[in-house]
Each structure stands twice: as C-alpha cells, then as structure tokens.
Amino acid sequence: MLATAILCAGNEALAMTASIFDVKSRYESRLLSLPGVISVGIGRASDGRTVIVIGVEDKASVEGSELPKQLEGYPVQVDVIGPVRAQ
Q1: Is the pLDDT of residue 27 over 50?
Q2: Residue 45 belongs to some domain of the structure
Q3: Residues 53, 12: Cα–Cα separation, whole Å
Q4: What global pTM score does this model have?
Q5: pLDDT band with cut points at 50, 70 and 90 for residue 15
Q6: CATH number, residue 68
Q7: Is residue 62, in this structure, part of any structural domain at all?
Q8: I need a labelling partner for 39 at 20 to 30 A (CA). Which of 31, 47, 71, 81 fits?
C-alpha cells in the first residue's frame, strides 16, 4: 500500500498518511482482544465513505466500551453481527 507524504513548507515537518489497510492491520489484534469484538474489516458506510468496520456480538458490547470512533483519521463503523458459530 502506498503512503502519502506531505512536506509542510516553512517548518520542514513531514506528515505521513497510512492507508486504511495499514491502519486496520495495526489495530486489529488490539481490537479483537476487547470483550464482544469478533471481527475487524474494511467496508463502505451508507454515505459511500470507506470505513474500518468492527463487528460485535451484541449491543451490550458497544455500550460503555472502549471502541474508537476513528483510527488515525479513518472513520470506524460498529456493526452488531451476533455470535459466531462454527458450522
């Protein structure tokens, strides 16, 4: 994945913007370790934006949780998908 570099004129600061795939990979194991979180992926919100999607078992998993609203500037969408069962 490509990262975008922006050189700020005047103060020589370099800001790097990671791809959404890199950001998802960086946070995935930490998110999956939270109670009730069963999946982390990338999807599209109803308004067409690309988002990081966190799948949770039930609404109780979202209430009072430490789930972020965004990760490194990318929006996060939380979906209640129910328990995962092996078939």
Answers
A1: yes
A2: yes
A3: 35
A4: 0.75
A5: very low
A6: 3.30.300
A7: yes
A8: 47
Is the residue at 86 inside a domain? Answer: no
Structural domain boundaries enclosing 73: 20-80
Name the domain count of the chain.
Answer: 1
Tens-place pLDDT, residues 29-85: 999 999 999 999 999 999 999 999 999 999 887 787 789 999 999 999 999 998 877
